[in-house]
Design brief:
Number of helices: 7
Helix content: 10-25%
Structural class: alpha+beta
EC number: 4.6.1.19
Distance between the termini: 32 Å
CATH topology of the largest domain: Ribonuclease Rh, Chain A
Subcellular location: Cytoplasm; Vacuole lumen
Keywords: Cytoplasm, Disulfide bond, Endonuclease, Glycoprotein, Hydrolase, Lyase, Nuclease, Signal, Vacuole
CATH class of the largest domain: Alpha Beta
Low-confidence stretches: 1-21, 258-281
CATH architecture of the largest domain: Alpha-Beta Complex
Number of domains: 2
GO biological process, one term: RNA catabolic process
Organism: Lachnellula hyalina
Radius of gyration: 22 Å
Length: about 400
């Protein structure tokens, strides 16, 4: 991916296609630049009060998400022009079926891209997208349904996700850093000044970096927008309000322990993106539950307990209990209820055992699903006989 410059960014964004919908975004004859001294009362033609749009990116390493040489998408955030922000602005439009909405607008290519570059660290991409839309997307004034003629319900959703992805594609953070000699390492550290200078040299303006436990894990790029986010121009700018929180020196930029090359645009991950450090089959501590079917590994379980082949595996915790062990994900305890395997906060934990290194329930290591999952589809796991037999092997972290 080419390095970005302000002129390249602007030219690219001007050429970006508008997300399709049956309705049409309002035409603005003299659009106002957000966060400028100009004023407008037409909130369909100027983003307000969330006038500064932040394209935010993740570098997840524990667990790793996404290609090993590419940052991933966090979101697109409408901040006030002083660094403050609103959130969850329209609960009536806090949709919970993002994938289905995108498919209904024939956005399967967009969905595939999101399943490669817009990933939840626990493998629950759908919930992550719902969160980003509900918290941030509903606060973008120019995406209000009243800003469309012949509005088609939910059409603002593909507009939001398409614009976020299109913007992200112009911001190759990995290459920007690598060109300045800043590459992931388990031993090297860097100064914040060097990281910020490398990103500014490519973007043209200051950016915000965030660290966790001393390691670089987020970058925020700031834009003002002339007009609506659907049809307007994104203008790179310095951030208002928020500042970087990384230490002055000793900043780690840890390598991802897996992933691809960053050039794939379809989701094909079928194995964990972190290298295990324990022994397969030993259910103790934290690990992945890899799905074994037809004699080979095909995906894994994500945090709700569903089988998935196109995302990051969920981290499970195995804890000794009686003659076996219990399992828990970020969603809650895992259990068998009415023949279904689920993980949720209200569950009563089931005591499982291991047989031959495989997860066992009542002495049986065979579980079932209606089909082998593909693309963004998740399959529920059952102990009752269905079309597909599958077993689950523990892979310690």
């Amino acid at each position: 991916m080419a390095i970005f410059t302000p002129r390249v960014v602007l030219a690219s964004l001007l050429a970006l296609p508008v997300a399709l919908g049956l309705g049409t975004p309002k035409t603005c004859s003299n659009p106002t630049l957000s966060c400028s001294t100009s004023t407008s009362t037409d909130l369909c033609c100027v983003n307000s009060p969330g006038g500064q749009l932040l394209q935010t990116q993740f570098w997840d390493t524990s667990p790793s998400t996404g290609p090993s040489n590419h940052w991933t998408i966090h979101g697109l955030w409408p901040d006030h022009c002083d660094g403050t922000y609103d959130s969850n602005c329209d609960t009536a439009r806090a949709y919970t079926n993002i994938s289905d909405i995108l498919k209904s607008f024939d956005k399967t290519d967009l969905l595939d891209y999101m399943n490669t570059y817009w990933l939840d660290e626990d493998g629950d991409n759908e919930s992550f997208w719902e969160h980003e839309w509900g918290k941030h997307g509903t606060c973008i004034s120019t995406l209000d349904p009243d800003c469309y003629t012949d509005y088609t319900p939910t059409q603002e959703v593909p507009d939001f996700f398409q614009k976020t992805v299109d913007l992200f594609k112009t911001l190759d953070s990995y290459t920007a850093l690598a060109n300045a000699g800043i590459t992931p390492s388990s031993t090297k550290t860097y100064t914040s000044a060097a990281i910020l200078a490398a990103l500014k040299a490519s973007f043209g303006y200051e950016v915000i970096i965030q660290c966790s436990s001393g390691a670089l894990d987020e970058i925020w790029y700031s834009y003002d927008v002339r007009g609506s986010i659907q049809t307007g121009t994104f203008v790179p700018t310095d951030p208002d309000g928020s500042k970087s929180d990384c230490a002055t020196s000793g900043v780690k930029y840890l390598p991802k322990s897996g992933g691809g090359t960053g050039t794939t645009t379809t989701a094909t991950t079928t194995s964990p993106t972190s290298t295990p450090t324990g022994t397969p089959g030993t259910f103790s501590g934290t690990g992945y539950l890899n799905a074994i079917t037809g004699g080979s590994q095909t995906g894994c379980l994500i945090s709700a307990g569903t089988w998935y082949t196109s995302g990051t595996c969920a981290t499970y915790t195995a804890a000794a209990s009686g003659s076996g062990f219990t399992l828990k994900s970020s969603k809650g305890p895992c259990g068998i209820s009415s023949s279904s395997f689920t993980c949720a906060s209200g569950n009563t934990a089931t005591v499982f055992t291991a047989v031959g290194g495989l997860l066992s329930y009542n002495g049986d290591t065979t579980f079932y699903a209606a089909a082998v999952p593909s693309g963004s589809t998740q399959e529920a796991i059952s102990t009752s006989s269905q079309s597909i037999s599958v077993s689950f092997q523990w892979q310690s972290l």
